[in-house]
Amino acid sequence: MNVNIKKTANGWLLNRHDCDAQAQWFEATYWQQQDKILGQSHGRNVTWFVGEKNSPMVLRHYCRGGLIGKLVHDSYLFTGLKSSRAYRECQLLLQLEQLALPACRVVAAQVIRTGLSYRADLLMKMVDGAQDLVAILTKKPLASQQWQQIGATIALFHQHKVYHADLNAHNILLDGDNNPWLIDFDRGEIRGQKGVWCQQNLQRLLRSFNKEKKKLAQFHFSENDWQQLLQGYTATAN
Ligand SMILES: Nc1ncnc2c1ncn2[C@@H]1O[C@H](COP(=O)(O)OP(=O)(O)O)[C@@H](O)[C@H]1O
Ligand SMILES: [Mg+2]
Questions:
Q1: Which tens digit of pLDDT belongs to each residue from 27-45?
Q2: With left for phi above 0 and alpha for psi between -120 and 50, is residue 161 left, alpha or beta?
Q3: What is the DSSP letter of 98?
Q4: Last residue of a domain, one of 90, 125, 160
Q5: pTM of the model as a whole
Q6: Which of 40, 129, 154, 172 has its CA 20 to 30 A from that of 196?
Q7: Helix, strand, coil: what percent of the chain each, to 5?
Q8: Per-residue pLDDT for 46 more than 80?
Q9: Nearest to 45 by CA among 153, 100, 124, 146
Q10: Domain with 215 in it: what CATH number?
């Protein structure tokens, strides 16, 4: 499955094969005018939840984090459409879909070029009834079996050599049936082989759990939960 590319006056619209996105879909005001904003999230990027209640979508504008982000908020050096963040994430999400991995499904993306730089947005399907692990763990603990299932899900991605550049507690969702999903594949890629990066993904996730636990008044995460996650990972890995 390849991304369908459509040239626009100042950039490109990227579509999944069965979709024909319009440029205005990437404007929050377009959804606002139709009273179709369902919610929003403020992480590094501003993320909007838009569309119909029975087929909600997630609209994310690519923004920079860290120090550079304070200077150049949302523009990136243009070195060709196919090396843009949006094109790469789109293509990766389609590959993950083909592998039937539980990653959010892409709808479309846009890249807008201004001279040497570009800005971009990504539109995805919302995972049904999902909440991210931070939202869940501030409210309640998870059963051992659920921690194992999260570990097994990460192992499944690693079996397919999928590298996640920012595996943290905000980027793991549990849907209405408690099934885990991974989101936010910006800068992710399918690698040639498994390697030390698998352990690095896990270490990053552990740091994220510990960071949230320090930061939040209530966050249900313990050493035993982590051991359960690792057990699920190991049982599925190889
Ligand atoms: N496909 C999705 N389904 C449900 N919720 C989502 C989805 N994508 C993102 N979210 C929610 O929005 C938050 C931010 O989205 P994300 O794509 O991770 O952007 P960022 O981390 O760059 O701010 C996530 O932590 C999650 O709570
Ligand atoms: Mg995220």
A1: 999 999 999 999 998 877 7
A2: left
A3: H
A4: 125
A5: 0.95
A6: 172
A7: 40, 25, 35
A8: no
A9: 124
A10: 1.10.510.10
Tell me, in angstroms, the distance from the centre of ligand 1 to residue 63's CA: 13
Task: Count the Cβ atoms, other than its own, within 10 Å of residue 194.
Answer: 15
95 and 112 housed in the same domain: yes
Residue 167 C-alpha to ligand 2 middle, in angstroms? 8
The alpha carbon torsion through 204, 210, 214, 219 (nearest 10 deg) reads 120
Q: Are residues 95 and 184 in the same domain?
A: no
**21 with 36, same domain?**
yes
Same-domain check for residues 120 and 11: yes
The CA 86 to ligand 2 mean position distance, Å, reads: 15
Give, for ligand 1, the residue of 40, 41, 93 to mutate: max count of ligand atoms closer than 8 Å to Cβ.
41
Provide the residue range defining the domain that includes 91. Answer: 4-125
- Counting from 1 in the atom list of ligand 1, the atom nearest the Cα of 130 is 4
**Which one of 18, 20, 35, 166 is the catalytic residue?**
166
Confidence at residue 233, expressed as pLDDT on a 0 to 100 scale = 98
Ligand nearest to the CA of 49: 1
Number of domains in the chain: 2
Name the DSSP letter for residue 24: G
